[in-house]
Amino acid sequence: MELKVGLTHETSITVEDSNTAIAYGSGGVRVFATPAMIGLMEKAALELADQYLPEGQTTVGTLVNVKHTAATPVGMRVVARAELIEIDGKRLVFKVDAADEAGPIGSGTHERFIINLEKFLQKVESKLTGRA
């Protein structure tokens, strides 16, 4: 099987104190944090891509354009969905959305790039050896 436009994947989480705006430092309210919602959307896209990539390859997130439109209280389940809408070489574009048990809470787009994991990690490690 191969990556192709139209593929979808969902992942979910139950909101806990550890993923609230207060815990993330992104707000002062005990509701699902925007960074946590974005992370869940990215996870859906990552898991979708990883199912179809050969061993040794994965993806890294490079762009997120998302609106968070409704608050979700602690204890409620959130489902994030990613749909692959464009493939441009190693660049993958996903339509992402999230909903809680009461309805939609966010949507937008997310881009990821396919990488060779070993080469990527070597490049990252080389940053440490180049520091003074």
From TrEMBL:
InterPro entries: FlK, FlK-like_dom, HotDog_dom_sf. Gene3D superfamilies: Hotdog Thioesterase. Coiled coil: none annotated. It holds the Pfam family FlK. The active site is at residues 34, 42, 68. CoA binds at residue 61. Residues 15-117 form the Fluoroacetyl-CoA-specific thioesterase-like domain. Substrate binds at residues 61, 112. This is Predicted thioesterase. It comes from Desulforamulus putei DSM 12395.
